[in-house]
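Good morning C.,

I know you're traveling, so I'll keep this short. The sequence:
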Amino acid sequence: MAGSLEDELGDILEKSRDGKGWTQSDLARASGIKASDVYRMERYEFVPDENILQNLAEALDLHAPSLIAIAKGRWVPQPIEPDPSPFDIVCLDLFVGTYPVKCYLLTCKATKATAVIDTGGNPEAVIKKTKELNLQLEKILLTHAHFDHAGGLELLDKTFHCPTWIDKREPCPSGSRDLRFLEDGEMIKLGNLNIEVLFTPGHTSGGISYKVHDSVFSGDAIFAGSMGRANSSWPELYSSITQKLLTLPDHTRLFPGHGPATTVGEEKRNNPFFCRTA
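The tokens, ready to paste straight into the viewer:
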């Protein structure tokens, strides 16, 4: 599940600016560089030298060595070791148009009970993979209702006739004939597994993550080396990450909705948003 990062320098700058409520011109003034250069960086057209990256990091309260490493292509998380707990995870790289999205098949080894975590925008690929593996979906678990994560819901509902879970504060997605609502700390049974619900809002108002043993399916809350876009609330998203996800043990595996899998320890050491707070 290793691969290139979801976010580049431009994404990190834009999301960090958003947290301060700054325009590109504000960042230019604070860091002493041209507004046109900020514009070019955020359009992936320009990567400056390390001195400028240092100035940008200081202005935005980011961890400079981590920002430089990502900007210069020197860091990606190490490939994770499979969780030794009694379940299997299959990661599907799906696409909404040309945009890659991840969804996950989680299977209890003892009972073969299976859940899909986020549907992606290509439910046919999910159905094909379950047939290849001889799995029968029992549950659909959504981290949030954005189309790239819930757009395949209707076809999966019709194919597998299984219920869908989502946080009660999230807008209801279309396509499920049996939609059920979750709260923070609730447990969901999947065969012999207990899946814990972690309320991680900020990307959306009802964003949640799912924790099973030492693995967390975090949706669009945190990415390797970055964080999600704060469509609902930047302070809430930052708090969800620092107070929920990064308080878990360092070996905890994080399976995001985009980009490579990572661990809590990797993000505490290498994510420019969180190195100073972890």
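Safe travels,
E.
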